[in-house]
């Protein structure tokens, strides 16, 4: 395929999936877009929102529309790592008894980790290797996950009792953290009609595994100008307290800044956004759009920030203004 | 950084350069206007004299410097691409096209095509409109403030009626000062002007300007005029000194020519005689040569002693003929020189210049005007050019030219009187015979007792100026009176008849102490010898 055709294929495929998901999920455009970005970029998504906002429905609809293997794990405090990754069991066959690896639910293309923060950190950590290396080690043997592999985790920010905050290492492995908003009144009306009527909406497969892999390949071919990339680097460095580009707020409120995974996440997300916007290159606007979802969970604020009501989103917005003020017009006319 | 070779940004580059020039001109103009404002403020506080022309030039230099910066500064391709991206809303298409090689594969080539398509849809003129910016506003503001400060410092609108009247009077005085100072100002512009000339001209110019702007009252103006007049006087005195030396030099040159005539020992009337002598000698030489040739060929018989005698006479005749021929050449030269009307005119002009210098020293108000002196000097220069065919003539021309130039520069003496007259102040010129300078004494061509001697001897006298060392008792004057013989060749009055009076006059002069003591004896011996 030519570059133009590939870009067109990308847009068409994503649009078809979005339409199909939209048949089931009412509204939530940003959330759906985030999920599609994760699918196209090959990154994991953390969905955060109150119960009943359709997080699980979204992930299920997405997996149905791309006809990929789907698995769902309801995280509970007594969930063990082996329940996720799988375990070796003693099996008896003609050859005799032997340990056979029984894959866990993680061996799917799309894994819904529902209420991930209800599991203990030990269990949460069972996902680390799978999310980063797309493989699972059990019984001393390494088992590779079949691509594409996508973890879509949800967490409830309201209930704190009986929950465990995700460790920084785990948070860093999520490409995006999407905050699921409440639906508008119009959307609520549609939801009410759809869910209380006789007919049940379901998503049909409009893309296949190869299509998803192609989407992920095309995304990585989008050119990125060094000067545009530098803009991303400056933003990420600006989240590091005491760095060259750090603002006063960074030095005051940030405990830990974004890691290099933050740069990768911003670039990949920006590339997907560029393609969806009909462009073949990443622009500053794409980066601005990708900033909050990609870095909000990577910038860890201190207690002073919490006391002052300073969130990572607010900080990132102020950093964007800070960096843009330094990025002056190349030629003053 | 490579890249899209077929992505043409030239139209944008031209437009951006135009806008940069427009902006830099405003920045430079603001700097120029700032400097002009400083000058205007200094003019307001009378630190310096700023003219509207100076202020405009300062502003213009700033604008031109800014324009030059805008025209010639480097505009990198990627900077232009980023600028067009931002202004044209191209979402970094051009920047990426310029920074990412199209050969990278994937979507890179599609990206370049996309950038080209979007860039071609943009019009540079609409993307970069020419309009005034902040710098233009600043420049205009500074120009307005500068104009205001300058006008406030130079206007009489806000003054009282009495102050306005005084300012008007000072303005008239300024015209007078400028008119009087015009020769000095012009002389200061010449290549041979001294630093003192230029300083005086500068002060005069500022004085006239201050008067015109009404920045001093009448009393201050008179004090300043007096100060400048004193400076002019000092300058005039030094000029008179050099003038006297130059005139003397010219006269010495004339004497040299006369001495050349004397050395030749020939007068114009001797020319025919010399020619006859030369002809006689030539015929004698020819006859003697013929006699010797005949003796050699045997036509005639001569003894050895006769041959030797004839040879000796022949040699003597040839030497004499050679001398006569040399004298004839010198006579031809002097005759030709003396007959030249220009030479005569040059002598007369020098005499006029010398007389003018005397008149200046004597404070004579009827001296020549600067224009007349300039005409004389120009004529002398023209004459001097005509005498450049011979080394001695060139020397003469040079000396005459120097005399003429020095005479021209000596006109500063007029300035002091003119300035003082402009303010109704009488000025006493401190001059007269024997003004000392540089350890030398320069006698003056004063009246002396020329008329007495003239009537006594019934002949025309000629005074000569003598330069000597200053004595222990101060200046000592010596006047040499040259009384030529009568045209007939003898004196018209027996010298015994005039000797007593002449001797009495000489003794009287000796008694006054003007003659050095060692010379008094010589004078007395001279008259004793005449009495015998």
Q: If you had to describe this structure to a student in words, what would you say it looks like?
A:
The complex is a heterodimer of chains A (333) and B (532). Chain A is 48% helix and 17% strand. Chain A is α/β, with parallel strands linked by helices and 333 residues long. The radius of gyration of chain A is 21 Å and the shape is globular. Chain B has helices at 10-44, 52-72, 77-88, 93-99, 108-120, 124-127, 134-154, 161-189, 195-213, 218-264, 270-297, 304-339, 341-361, 370-386, 391-409, 412-422, 450-457, 495-511, 517-531; strands at 440-442, 462-464, 467-469, 480-482. Chain B starts with 9 loop residues before the first helix and ends with a helix. The A-B interface holds A 2-4, 6-7, 218, 221-228, 277, 279-286, 329-333 and B 16, 19-20, 23, 75, 78-80, 82-83, 86, 91-93, 95-100, 104-111, 114-115, 128.
CATH class of the largest domain in chain A: Alpha Beta
Let me know the number of strands of chain B. Answer: 4
Structural class assignment of chain B: mainly alpha
C-alpha Rg of chain B (nearest Å):
42 Å
The rounded distance between the terminal residues' Cα atoms of chain A is 42 Å
The rough form of chain B would be described as elongated
List the helices and strands and how they pair.
The complex is a heterodimer of chains A (333) and B (532).
Chain A: H1 3-24, H2 29-41, E1 44-48, H3 55-65, E2 70-74, H4 81-85, E3 86-93, E4 96-103, E5 110-114, H5 121-124, H6 126-133, E6 135-138, E7 141-144, E8 150-155, H7 168-172, E9 174-179, H8 185-196, H9 209-220, H10 226-238, H11 248-253, E10 254-256, H12 260-276, H13 284-295, E11 300-301, H14 303-308, H15 312-326
Chain B: H1 10-44, H2 52-72, H3 77-88, H4 93-99, H5 108-120, H6 124-127, H7 134-154, H8 161-189, H9 195-213, H10 218-264, H11 270-297, H12 304-339, H13 341-361, H14 370-386, H15 391-409, H16 412-422, E1 440-442, H17 450-457, E2 462-464, E3 467-469, E4 480-482, H18 495-511, H19 517-531
Antiparallel strand pairs in B: 1-3, 2-4
Helix pairs in contact in B: 1-2, 1-7, 3-4, 4-5, 8-9, 8-16, 9-10, 10-12, 10-13, 10-15, 10-16, 11-12, 13-14, 13-15, 14-15, 18-19
């Amino acid at each position: 395929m030519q570059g133009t055709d590939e870009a067109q294929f990308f847009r068409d495929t994503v649009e078809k999936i979005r339409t199909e998901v939209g048949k089931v999920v009412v509204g939530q455009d940003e959330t759906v877009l985030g999920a599609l970005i994760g699918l196209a970029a090959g990154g994991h998504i953390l969905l955060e929102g109150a119960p009943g906002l359709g997080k699980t429905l979204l992930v299920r609809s997405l997996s149905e529309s791309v006809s990929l293997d789907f698995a769902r794990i309801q995280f509970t405090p007594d969930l063990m790592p082996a329940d996720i990754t799988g375990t070796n069991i003693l099996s008896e066959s003609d050859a005799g008894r032997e340990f056979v690896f029984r894959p866990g639910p993680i061996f799917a293309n799309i894994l819904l980790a529902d209420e991930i923060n209800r599991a203990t950190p030990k269990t949460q950590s069972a996902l680390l290797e799978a999310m980063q290396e797309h493989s699972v080690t059990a019984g001393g043997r390494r088992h590779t996950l079949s691509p594409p592999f996508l973890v879509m985790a949800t967490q409830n920010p309201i209930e704190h009792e009986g929950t465990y905050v995700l460790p920084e290492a785990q948070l860093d492995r999520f490409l995006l953290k999407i905050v699921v908003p409440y639906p508008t009144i119009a959307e609520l009306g549609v939801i009410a009609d759809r869910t209380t009527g006789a007919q049940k909406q379901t998503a049909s497969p409009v893309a296949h595994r190869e299509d998803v892999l192609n989407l992920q390949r095309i995304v990585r071919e989008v050119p990125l100008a060094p000067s545009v990339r530098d803009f991303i680097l400056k933003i990420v460095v600006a989240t590091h307290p005491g760095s060259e580009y750090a603002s006063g707020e960074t030095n005051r409120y940030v405990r830990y800044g974004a890691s290099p995974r933050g740069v990768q996440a911003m670039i990949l997300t920006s590339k997907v956004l560029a393609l969806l916007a009909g462009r073949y290159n990443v622009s500053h606007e794409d980066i601005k759009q990708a900033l909050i979802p990609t870095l909000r969970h990577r910038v860890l604020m201190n207690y002073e920030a919490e006391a002052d009501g300073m969130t990572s989103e607010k900080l990132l917005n102020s950093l964007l203004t800070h960096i843009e003020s330094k990025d002056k017009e190349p030629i003053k006319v | 950084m490579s890249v899209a070779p077929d992505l043409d940004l030239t139209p944008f580059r031209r437009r951006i350069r135009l806008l940069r020039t427009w902006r830099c001109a405003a920045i430079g103009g603001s700097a120029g206007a700032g400097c002009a404002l400083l000058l205007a403020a200094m003019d307001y506080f009378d630190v310096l004299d700023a003219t509207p022309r100076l202020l405009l030039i300062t502003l213009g230099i700033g604008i031109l410097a800014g324009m030059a910066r805008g025209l010639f500064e480097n505009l990198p391709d990627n900077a232009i691409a980023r600028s067009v991206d931002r202004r044209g809303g191209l979402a970094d298409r051009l920047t990426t096209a310029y920074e990412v090689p199209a050969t990278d594969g994937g979507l890179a080539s599609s990206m370049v095509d996309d950038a080209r398509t979007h860039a071609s849809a943009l019009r540079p003129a609409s993307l970069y409109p020419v309009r005034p910016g902040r710098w233009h506003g600043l420049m205009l503001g500074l120009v307005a403030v500068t104009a205001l400060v300058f006008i406030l410092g130079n206007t009489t609108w806000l003054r009282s009626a009495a102050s306005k009247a005084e300012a008007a009077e000072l303005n008239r005085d300024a015209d007078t000062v400028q008119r009087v100072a015009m020769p000095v100002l012009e002389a200061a512009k010449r290549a041979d002007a001294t630093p003192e000339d230029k300083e005086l001209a500068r002060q005069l110019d500022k004085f006239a300007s201050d008067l015109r702007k009404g920045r001093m009252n009448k009393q201050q103006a008179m004090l300043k005029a007096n100060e400048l007049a004193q400076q002019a006087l000092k300058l005039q005195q030094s000029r008179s000194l050099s003038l006297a030396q130059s005139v003397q030099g010219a006269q010495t040159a004339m004497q040299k020519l006369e001495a050349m005539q004397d050395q030749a020992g020939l007068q114009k009337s001797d020319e025919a005689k010399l020619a006859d002598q030369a002809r006689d000698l030539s015929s004698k030489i020819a006859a003697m040569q013929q006699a010797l040739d005949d003796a050699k060929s045997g036509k005639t018989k001569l003894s050895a002693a006769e041959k030797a005698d004839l040879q000796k006479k022949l040699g003597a005749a040839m030497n004499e003929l050679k001398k006569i021929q040399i004298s004839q050449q010198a006579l031809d030269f002097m005759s030709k020189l003396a007959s030249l009307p220009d030479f005569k005119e040059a002598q007369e002009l020098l005499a006029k210049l010398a007389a003018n210098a005397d008149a200046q020293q004597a404070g004579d108000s009827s001296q020549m005007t600067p224009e007349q002196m300039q005409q004389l000097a120009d004529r002398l220069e023209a004459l001097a050019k005509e005498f450049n065919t011979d080394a001695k003539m060139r020397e003469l021309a040079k000396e005459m030219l120097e005399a003429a130039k020095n005479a021209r520069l000596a006109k500063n003496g007029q300035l002091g009187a003119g300035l003082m007259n402009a303010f109704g102040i009488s000025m006493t010129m401190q001059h007269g015979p024997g003004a000392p300078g540089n350890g030398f004494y320069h006698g003056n061509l004063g009246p002396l007792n020329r008329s007495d001697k003239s009537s006594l001897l019934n002949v025309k006298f000629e005074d000569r100026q003598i330069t000597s060392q200053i004595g222990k008792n101060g200046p000592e004057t010596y006047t040499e009176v040259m009384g030529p013989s009568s045209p007939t060749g003898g004196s018209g009055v027996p010298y015994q008849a005039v000797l007593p009076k002449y001797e009495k006059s000489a003794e009287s002069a000796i008694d006054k102490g003007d003659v050095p003591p060692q010379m008094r004896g010589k004078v007395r011996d001279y008259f004793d010898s005449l009495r015998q």
